[in-house]
Amino acid sequence: xxxxxxxxxxxxxxxxxxxxxxxxxxxxxxxxxxxxxxxxxxxxxxxxxxxxxxxxxxxxxxxxxxxxxxxxxxxxxxxxxxxxxxxxxxxxxxxxxxxxxxxxxxxxxxxxxxxxxxxxxxxxxxxxxxxxxxxxxxxxxxxxxxxxxxxxxxxxxxxx
Amino acid sequence: xxxxxxxxxxxxxxxxxxxxxxxxxxxxxxxxxxxxxxxxxxxxxxxxxxxxxxxxxxxxxxxxxxxxxxxxxxxxxxxxxxxxxxxxxxxxxxxxxxxxxxxxxxxxxxxxxxxxxxxxxxxxxxxxxxxxxxxxxxxxxxxxxxxxxxxxxxxxxxxxxxxxxxxxxxxxxxxxxxxxxxxxxxxxxxxxxxxxxxxxxxxxxxxxxxxxxxxxxxxxxxxxxxxxxxxxxxxxxxxxxxxxxxxxxxxx
Lengths: 160, 252
Prior knowledge:
The complex is a heterodimer.
Chain A: H1 9-142, H2 148-159
Helix pairs in contact in A: 1-2
Chain B: E1 15-17, E2 20-21, E3 24-25, E4 28-29, H1 30-49, H2 59-78, H3 87-103, H4 118-140, H5 155-170, H6 172-202, H7 208-249
Antiparallel strand pairs in B: 1-4, 2-3
């Protein structure tokens, strides 16, 4: 086997050392670090991009929350104003109602009073007429006219 | 057996350019040539892939990044955050072994697999081992020697275990080298043996296709298996290198 011939050892080992030294010190040492730096830069860029995306998301979330809060406060404000307007108009209506009620009440009372007066007056007139008629009837039957006061009290008793 | 049908012939070392340094023979051989080819391919791959690094990678860059991520995962899993500095080393080991393994899979008579030679794998394993020793002693000083003392064990028992620990530690570069070399050699011998079967049975009497097709089919399947082994052995080499480095970095 040529592999075990001692004469073949030193030349091959010497050339391997030369080739490997060139490979390591010249080729790999000059190319690999550049690649490593590029890969690091890429990793950093990706991490940075992810970071800025995260920041943008946080900002968007914050804006969303702000917007939601704005909508909620506007709704609250509108609701409050609506309630205020409602109570205000209710008060106005109540006042107007009370006013018109008072007016109506006064009118009804006045009407009642005049009604009462008219009724009393009518009753008085009916009594007078009834007493007069009763006195007339008694005069025709008995020939004597009773006293006006008797006729009036008798008529009042009969009318109840 | 003629040299054309000898399954070991594919591992022959031929000198392309004789060279001697300080009286030591360091000739440029076909093995050295294929190591340099592997180096060239890896260099092209890496240089083109990282020429203009971009945020959104192109195809070349994505391929290099994929491999880098893979090695990073292996190192991270086995060493942890302290292993970051050793990623280039493990990466170099991985791509070099992978390139050498895969180059041997070219179905061409001139192709050669440097990693099928124990001299190459042993040299690589010794480099890793030396780095483990240096890192261990630099990080922990002589305290690194406590690595051989089994932790939390009664001392009489530990006294027996310690030599075993020492032996298993120093045998590491050899197991690392032999595992890769044996896998590559065995696979290529098998491919070559079945290749000779194709020729031998293909020229066999009246039914050449019937007999020749069977070992050819086996060779196709074996090639797929060998591709898998080429990848897995490169991974195993890098994985074990990072596990050994972990022992030196995170002393138990």
